[in-house]
């Protein structure tokens, strides 16, 4: 009899354990109560779970062990949701970077084809020149070379009150900028060590065999194009060498764009040379594919448009067609193409300091990298990848850092 009683007690205990661990169908009110506790404490202790049962009458029919299982499952679902979201974000980044690399590969192939064509043309010219024996032929070759060196005729001066003339300059600037950003107008040399990837700074290159100094960068950010354009237009917030930027005039265009006449001053890299200033036209517009473009160039006698008055203590530098191409990505975010191309007028620098300015590719590169780095930092702060403790605001820290550097 005692043996049968023991077996009966074991069966009853096993049945009770199975009943306590079986799936419980929670009502919406019970789930809401548990979610409120989960929001405050995702992993409550045993005492906290028992207290929850006592304080919530709607949970009185649920065992503490079942509530423990509910919190375990809830944490597991939250972890899976975060991991799925992270993988989706990585997949979007990889898709966008793959598209960017394919476009860069196509551009490089076009550049190689262009260089091969130029190489063949130069070899043919050298062969023709070496085969020439008469003086008249030599004179003809010299004269043809002089004709090629003649400057192009200057554009007539445009009136500041003539929007059509300024729009023509703006459209020309847009075409030249896009040819540098995505075309083969400049032979770009990619910087060593800048490995492209979804979480890298981007693809950075410097100019080769072009007037002035130029730099180019391509990268991905998790911000919408309109937000990126807003940040890029606020140059003093991210370019530390920028002393001031004044928008002297703003003219809307018929295609929904904006033309701005701007004056910018920069700090001098040394007290032995004068600082540089720029008088430019900035054109903001959108393309048919939804991309935003902010392009800029100096207004001079050769480019046309109103020329800005000189300022004492500054040497007028020239900004060749430069700017930003911001393209939307599928699923959110943007692909940014940045081009900075400047001529700092090194002949106004003392002879001792000319090597500093002539090797000033780092100036254009610094502008390009500063813009891309600033946008990536804001994107990471917005997405929560960078967190600051103690209630410190990222914008306040950035402003303090910029003032400290200046």
Automatic annotation (TrEMBL):
Residues in the DNA-binding region are 19-82
Instruction: Give one GO term, molecular function aspect.
Output: lipid binding
GO BP of this protein:
cell differentiation; meristem initiation
Note the SUPFAM superfamilies from the entry: Bet v1-like, Homeodomain-like
Cellular localisation = Nucleus
A single Gene Ontology CC annotation of this entry is: nucleus
Among its keywords, does the record have Lipoprotein? no
Q: What is this protein called?
A: Homeobox-leucine zipper family protein / lipid-binding START domain-containing protein isoform 6
